[in-house]
Structures are given as structure tokens and as C-alpha cells.
Amino acid sequence: MPASPSRPLADRWHLIIATVAGTGYIPLAPGSWGSLIGAVLFWFLAPNPTWILALMTAIIFFLGVWSSTHIENTTNTTDPGLIVIDEVAGMWFVLIFVPQSFVHYLFAFILFRIFDVLKPPPANQLQSVHKGWGVMLDDIAAGVYAVILMLIGMWIF
Q: Is residue 4 part of a domain?
């Protein structure tokens, strides 16, 4: 579902949001690229107060629900691979809880990707929630798992 000038403006905006400006069209591992874009964007936003970062994450989440629902309805598919805004929201959720350092971000990225791919319960059940909610919620669940392991790891080391 490439963006084209013949598509209605609303469709194009939903595609821009859901694919994170086209990142979802990268043919190899678009979810990993979406997570990487999310981590890089968050790096530059991290100096803001935590409440602002949490608010921005919530906004990304709800924009993701809105655009993912539209994309699913338009394509008549469930969680198409071109949607990567969920990875951005999930990464941001994790990064709110970790210090801003390359090592912490690297481990957060790796853990988030592992849990996003494996989708241990209840993340796999959340994926079946109606429309864009399921698209977004399973990545937040993956983020919760990653945060728990990150916090345990930071406590031990």
C-alpha cells in the first residue's frame, strides 16, 4: 500500500504515521528498523522531563492505534508488516525507564526485539485485541518484559 498522490490525504497521513515516514517499507526486518528509529529519536528527546517523555509515548501510542486501525481497515489485513509505529511506542516505553547511555539503549533494543518477536503471554493474546489496539498493545507488553529485565539487570550490575 504505497503512498501515492492519487490516495486521499487522510490515507497518506495514516501511512506516514503507521510506517514512521516510510520505515515500514524497508524489506528486511522493518520492525527492527522501526525500533532503531524509535531509539534514535528518543535519544534526542531524553533530556526532557520524564513526564513529558511519558506523555509523548502516550501520544505516539494513540496515534498508532488510530493509524493502525485505518491501515487495517483499508488493506483488510491484520497487523500488516508495514506498520512500525508500534515498535516506536514500545521502544519509547522501555527507554523511559533506562539511563541514557549507548549500552543501556543497546540492551533495551535487543531485549525489546526479542520479546516483540517471541511474544510470550499475554503479549500474544493482546495481538488479537480489535484493530489498532492489538497492533499497539502487544508491543507495549513486549516493552514491559524488556523493562523488567532491564531493571533487574541494572539492579544486579
A: no
Per the domain annotation, does 149 fall within a domain? yes
Find the domain containing 140 and state its range: 9-156
According to DSSP, residue 25 is labeled G
pTM of the model: 0.92
Cell of 60: 505516539
Contact 38, 88 (CB under 8 A): yes
What are the pLDDT digits (tens) for 15-71?
999 999 999 999 999 999 999 999 999 999 999 999 999 999 999 999 999 999 999
Query: SS3 letters for 27-92?
Result: CCCHHHHHHHHHHHHHHHHCCCCHHHHHHHHHHHHHHHHHHHHHHHHHHCCCCCCCCCHHHHHHHH
